[in-house]
Amino acid sequence: GDLTYGGLIDGPIERELFLTRAGNALTRPDENAIFNRGKAVYHDDIGDYSSNEPTMDGTAGLSYYFAAMEKEGKEYAKEEPKVKKDAWGAVVRVNPDQKKIYLIFSADSMFQGGDKILKTLKNNKIKGSFFLTGNFLRLADQKSMIERIIKEGHYTGAHSDKHILYAPWDNRDKSLVTTDSLANDIKRNYAELAKFGIEPKDAPWYLPPYEWYNKESVNVASWLGFKTINFTPGTATPADYTTPDMKNYRSSEELINKLFEFEKREGLNGAVILIHPGVEESRTDRLYDKLDSIIKRLKRLGYTFDRL
Fold first, then answer.
1. Neighbours of 194 (CB within 10 A)
2. What is d(CA 190, CA 184) in angstroms, rounded to the nearest whole number?
3. Residues of 78-94 as b/e, b for ≥16 C-beta within 10 angstroms?
4. b/e for 5-31, b at 16 or more Cβ within 10 A?
5. What string of pLDDT tens digits covers the 308 residues of the chain?
6. Residue 274 near residue 235 (C-beta atoms within 8 A)
7. What is the distance, to the nearest Å, from the Cα of residue 30 to the centroid of all Cα atoms in its chain?
8. In the chain, at which residue ranges do the beta strands (DSSP E only) sit?
9. 4: Cα separation from own chain's centroid
10. C-alpha atoms less than 13 angstroms from C-alpha of 299 in its C-beta half-sphere
11. pTM of the model
12. Max Cα–Cα distance, the chain, nearest Å
């Protein structure tokens, strides 16, 4: 008298066959009646054995197939990095059991620090990860910079096409865009990446615009085959976008102090540290100018660096 969880069932059947075999067998009102007016019907009701009975041969066959795939699945699981996720499903630490840090840089329109960041990474012999919007990828004056990022072996990924806000700042449970619009925004971003030779398989990690998202946007990215990533909460560096006229303004010295206080308190194993390569002109105290000293200090603490 219960449902068969995880198994296959017969599925839709011709209306006449249902009426002949189980026409009066439903145990409750048909909640899908509006869809059952054509030639085929299906009832999510154990009384309608004609469309909802378990198919033992199909389920047995599926079990056999899964068993054959088990070894392959275990090998794939070994290749996937261990991760730590936040409450909305985004990855905020990668390989948290290793003393390794992932530096990420996101851009939509401003990129004054690009050259300095790339030189700093090269001088320290490390790779970073750059997340670029479609808006940025379409900028003609940034074409050579984008090509340089790719040529030097850094991860180059998507950061939305139009840099739209996915969820309200005061209520992440709501969405400001429809599922279709969100999916199209991500697809268009990857279409722009493809113009630089970056295919989806080359860029599985996705950084949402404004680093702000909810479960729905994380799920949509997952349905498209991408893994949502975000900076590790508590690292403080993402506030390097603030300007002196803002109430939440934070100087570079303050951000660096908070980063290393966090390291002392919780460690940075597998941490994702975000620094903006472009900020408003009114912010003359730019954190990317301190990137070299940050890297060297973290190295002295025993950390290594890697791209995603």
1. 14
2. 10
3. eeeeeebeeebbbbbbb
4. eeeebeeebeeeebeeebeeeeeeeee
5. 566 667 788 889 999 999 998 888 899 999 989 999 999 999 988 888 888 877 877 888 888 888 888 877 777 666 677 899 999 999 999 999 999 999 999 999 999 999 999 999 999 999 999 999 999 999 999 999 999 999 999 999 999 999 999 999 999 989 999 999 999 999 999 999 999 999 999 999 999 999 999 999 999 999 999 999 999 999 999 999 999 999 999 999 999 999 999 999 999 999 999 999 999 999 999 999 999 999 999 999 999 999 99
6. yes
7. 38
8. 13-14, 40-41, 83-85, 91-94, 100-107, 129-132, 155-158, 205-206, 227-228, 272-274, 304-305
9. 33
10. 12
11. 0.76
12. 79
Return the residue matching tokens 């791209």.
Answer: 307
In the numeric block, which tokens belong to residue 184? 């199209």
| Tokens standing for residue 223 | 């349905």
Look-up: residue for tokens 């080359």? 202
